[in-house]
Amino acid sequence: MNQKTFKLYKQKQEMKEAQIDLQKNIKDLEIELEYVEIRRPHDLKYIRQLESKIDELYEKLEDEK
């Protein structure tokens, strides 16, 4: 494998790992959001912050694809 091919392969792997990390972060935040909605439904400010962060991560994930 030549140097250029190896660099391209490495970039693709890094992008793939970044997407996996984003997906994990989104999943974790969605779990937290569900918990907060059930246990502390009156904490609207925190719920909105979580929803905003989740939306932001989904947009970032779409941009990377």
Average of per-residue pLDDT values: 92
Secondary-structure element pattern, one letter each: HH
Using DSSP, what is the number of strands? 0
Using the CA coordinates, give the radius of gyration. Answer: 17 Å
Helices, by number, come to: 2
Cα(first) to Cα(last) distance is: 26 Å
Count up the domains: 1
Give the structure's gist in a few sentences.
This protein is an all-alpha fold and 65 residues long. Helices cover 89% and strands 0% of the residues. The mean pLDDT is 92.
Describe this protein's structure.
There is one protein chain. The chain is mainly α and 65 residues long. Helices cover 89% and strands 0% of the residues. The chain has one domain. The chain is built from two helices and no strands. Helix 1 (3-39) packs antiparallel against helix 2.
Question: Keywords for this structure?
Answer:
about 60 residues, mainly alpha, 2 helices
Topology:
Blueprint: H1 3-39, H2 44-64
Helix pairs in contact: 1-2
